[in-house]
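Ticket #4471: structure output looks truncated?

Reporter: J.K.
Steps to reproduce: submitted the chain below (466 residues) through the standard prediction queue, then opened the result file.
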Amino acid sequence: MNILELLEKRMICADGGFGTALIKHGMGPGELSERWNVAHPEDVIEIHQSFLDAGADIILANTFGANVYHYDDEAEMEQVIRAGVANAKKAVELSGKDAFVALDIGSTGKLLPPMGMLPFDEAVESFAKMVRIGADAGADLIWIETMNDIYELKAAVVAARENCDLPVFATAVYDAGARMMSGASPECVVAMLEGLGVSALGLNCGVGPEAAKASVEILSQYASVPLIVKPNAGLPHMVDGMTVYDVTAEDFAKEMEEILKIPGVGVIGGCCGTTPDHIRAAWDVAKDKMDGSDAVSACQPKDRALVASSQMYLDVTDGDFDLGTSIDATQDEDLLADLQDGFVDSVMDLADDDADDGAEILNIKLAAEDVDEPQMMKQAIIELQNLNMLPLSIQSTDPDAVREALRVVNGKAMVNLTDADAEQIKSILPVVKKYGAVVCVPEALKEAVLDLADEAGVLRRELIFQ
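Returned output as attached by the reporter:
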């Protein structure tokens, strides 16, 4: 039985605060924790075993920060990742349990635009290196966590989806007001992650279980996949030079019991400050979910079509939305001239005009004579979303242009195919399946498009007929 088959049957328990445990084992300030996989494998295995004994079905390999920004020597990076997966698998073997090992991927520690300068493609490749090594080492799934920036979260998921066939679980950090540090809401994150095809999504770190409840409730309203809840043991503070978390195992379990009443919660665990005692106590209150009667079965598909930018989302299910005046290279001489010269300045100006006129979504159509549509579309999207917060609509019948756009868009876009024929739609739907989008298609082609969508694996709820 693989992890997704188990998740269909019952609630799953993940592990707790690995870094907290390593500190108790003697890891000093400033140490790269992944080096313990090689230098102290017996300690790493012991920590994994303690969480398995507490009830964990999934343990996260000690690979959280094993990226090129922390390890200049990529040979060492590969060594610590392989050792991390091997140690986790050894712990599972020693436990005698049917448990699973996740390749743990955390933040690079750098910010992507518009908050920082790390290019999206560079971030994707840094995560891709981790994914390729971890998958080859035998990880059962990819677990992306502790993401404060929705665009970095997307980069990590894209890297996983492009470089392995393993299930992907992804969690973001939300504050007490249910916002990521980058400003993204749970609705924006659900739209993006479900479009990218993750198997489960949710939250970790940031706050304790009581404060996390508000975010879980919003996620529950919008998510169609199982929810992950892996909060801290409260907020940290310093006592005698030591980081302390005040939520006891008993209190953690009481708060998690309330969270378990929220429909759709399918994976529970803990983050910073949570010990095996916290996991054991939380799992004890979740035991009534073991038969599957009200666990993942409560996570019902939501009949909604969402588009989103990095900070705004729009429900377009009913087809009632304002695209404004299309940014169309065939209708604007200045825009056409810019694009033919390899510039997108006019796109920015037209987008500002559309936003000022009340558009809810910006529709971009760049196909024209002597224009490198895929390259210009990518460039326009990257520069536009640094200044604009509206969701985007990509109007193109070129699969390459759509691919370039959907891959780099910060959020989840719409693909406007209202001027496409059935063959053109057929060529683009696999791209939509891979990177996620709501697809606007002609009403006259409804029956044919429904069949094509089923064939490509695109959910019917993501289709808007006009």
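Triage note (M.O.): checked the attachment and the full token line is present. The chain has a mean pLDDT of 94.
Status: closed, working as intended.
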